[in-house]
Amino acid sequence: MGPDLKIKRVYEKSSRTDGVRILVDRLWPRGMKKEDARIREWVKDLAPTPALRVWFGHDPNNWTEFQKKYKAELKKNEAVRDFLEKYEDAKAITLIYAAKDEQHNHALILRDFLEQQYQER
After folding, report:
1. pLDDT tens readout for residues 69-116
2. What confidence score (pLDDT) does residue 121 get?
3. CA–CA distance from 115 to each of 17, 36, 121 (Å)?
4. Which of 21, 46, 66, 72 could form a cystine bridge with 56, CB 3.0-4.6 A?
């Protein structure tokens, strides 16, 4: 079944209900001090590759294609398997991201992908 997976912007206040907070961006968020982020781990390799991130450019017009390309990357990504094993016994995990657009960001796709992977285990 896996943990309860949530997503949250790094600039939002942390809370007890977040559970394990994991930063899933490839780049450290601008203006954020490490101690203020309150993350347990920074898993850069769960983020889109630099080439895909640049291609997407947070352009909503690229969203549908970005979802397909990012899911294809995740299917081949060893970091996904490592993450699934490491955190399968966690009760709650919050995937932390920095993007301004809350409707078009990789953390949404990653959460759904990880949920599906946990259900298939």
Report:
1. 999 999 999 999 999 999 999 999 999 999 999 999 999 999 999 999
2. 84
3. 18, 27, 10
4. 66
Strand partners, 94: 6, 21
Query: How many of the other CB atoms lie within 10 Å of CB of 44?
Result: 12
Q: What ranges in 13-105 are assigned the alpha helix state H?
A: 34-37, 50-56, 63-75, 78-87
Question: Residue 36: is its pLDDT beyond 80?
Answer: yes
- The dihedrals phi and psi of 27, each to the nearest 5 degrees, come to -110, 145
- Domain span at 76: 4-120
Give me the number of domains the chain comprises: 1
Token couple for 14: 């942390």
Joined tokens for residue 37: 């982020």
pLDDT tens digits, residue range 83-96?
999 999 999 999 99
Q: What is the largest CA-CA distance in the chain?
A: 38
29: DSSP letter: P
Which residues have a Cβ under 8 Å from the Cβ of 109 and sit 6 or more positions away?
67, 70, 71, 74
